[in-house]
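Please decode residue identities from the backbone states below.
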């Protein structure tokens, strides 16, 4: 950065000489020369030296956080090259360094990149990305059918693009993320919708009707609605995962199936945490009847031909008829997906007065705070239950 007097000419000996009046450049006398956060050279001219020096100082302060940025790499590296490096990170340690992401999530990210980000940005150098262009592109994003993309799509694509460029900042190739403004905001990316407290869980009677309609998979539906397991966890359970402990029956949840491009992959659970969830004794008795004389490594729930179950096939052949049976019996009942039954399990546990740490375990959340956030309404609705229980414990007060 430098402040230059355009009316003076530098001499070979390093001194300056005032130019003749007729040779002086037209316009403002003082010029500030600097490189912006993208490595592009900028110039601005001022009427007097004081204003130029103040502006020069401001640019120095703004660039303080950009020291060490490799502008050469930013000019040479394309978005596609950065994307490849970001995928490597996701596959090795994850975006936040907490462990590799799942195959299904990586596949979803890859589809978003291939369908929306790559066509616009594949060959664009990082140093050439401008906030205004990103905003214009995302605001006018179109789906594969040529129609305007919905809010959810723009949220997912915009968030992914921002994370990819965050990796460029992490590598020292960008001083800041061009998807955000000077305040760090990306207002053109629609906020993700939170559905906390809007799960519409089933009652025990509704869950029973739903399970009865699932024919041979009645135990599976009841397990989903009473134990809160995800589909991938349910389909990966083995006979030996159901066991009787000192306090009662339990299920060990250690693994899960995930389906990626038609392939079933057996991996750890979503949060990579092994957990044990309680099983009501009546459900355990039902499950015991189903697994009698079966080997411990047999699947607890399996397809009619004995293979791992697929969500799509189960839903079409068994679960959708069960939902129709529930609708016929109770027209006002919710129409939950198989995943929604997790919310029923958590809601019933809360209604039963279960400790929050146990509810967290049932839900499979890594932190109790997540459980409290997601199920805020259920806890709020239970506000006066504590007082009612205390009334049962304390003597009559007068």
């Amino acid at each position: 950065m430098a402040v230059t007097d355009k009316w003076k000419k530098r001499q070979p000996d390093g001194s300056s000489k005032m130019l003749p009046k007729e040779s002086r450049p037209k316009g403002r006398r003082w010029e500030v020369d600097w490189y912006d956060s993208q490595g592009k050279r900028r110039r601005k001219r001022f009427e007097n030296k004081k204003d130029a020096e103040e502006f020069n100082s401001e640019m120095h302060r703004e660039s303080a956080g950009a020291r060490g940025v490799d502008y050469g790499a930013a000019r040479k590296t394309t978005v596609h090259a950065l994307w490849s490096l970001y995928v490597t990170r996701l596959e090795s340690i994850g975006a936040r360094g907490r462990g590799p992401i799942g195959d299904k999530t990586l596949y979803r990210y890859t589809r978003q990149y291939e369908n929306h980000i790559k066509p616009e940005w594949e060959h664009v150098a990082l140093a050439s990305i401008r906030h205004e262009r990103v905003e214009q592109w995302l605001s006018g994003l179109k789906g594969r059918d040529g129609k305007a993309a919905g809010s959810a799509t723009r949220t997912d694509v915009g968030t992914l693009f921002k994370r990819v460029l965050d990796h460029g900042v992490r590598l020292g190739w960008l001083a800041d993320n061009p998807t955000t403004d000077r305040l760090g905001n990306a207002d053109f990316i629609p906020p993700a919708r939170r559905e906390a407290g809007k799960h519409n869980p089933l009652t025990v009677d509704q869950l029973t009707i739903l399970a009865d309609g699932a024919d041979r998979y009645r135990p599976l539906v009841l397990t989903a609605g009473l134990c809160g397991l995800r589909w991938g966890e349910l389909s990966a359970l083995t006979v030996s995962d159901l066991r009787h402990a000192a306090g009662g029956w339990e299920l060990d949840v250690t693994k899960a199936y995930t389906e990626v491009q038609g392939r079933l992959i057996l991996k750890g659970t979503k949060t990579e945490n092994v957990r044990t969830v309680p099983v009501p004794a009546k459900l355990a008795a039902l499950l015991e009847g189903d697994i009698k004389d079966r080997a411990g490594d047999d699947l607890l729930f399996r397809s009619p031909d004995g293979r791992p179950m697929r969500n799509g096939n189960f839903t079409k052949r068994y679960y959708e008829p069960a939902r129709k049976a529930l609708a016929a019996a109770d027209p006002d009942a919710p129409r939950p997906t198989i995943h929604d039954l997790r919310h029923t399990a958590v809601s019933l546990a809360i209604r039963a007065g279960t400790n929050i740490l146990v509810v967290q375990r049932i839900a499979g959340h890594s932190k109790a705070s997540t459980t409290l956030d997601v199920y805020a309404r259920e806890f709020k609705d239970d506000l006066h239950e504590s007082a009612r229980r205390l009334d049962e414990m304390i003597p009559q007060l007068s």
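Observation: The chain has 16 helices and ten strands.
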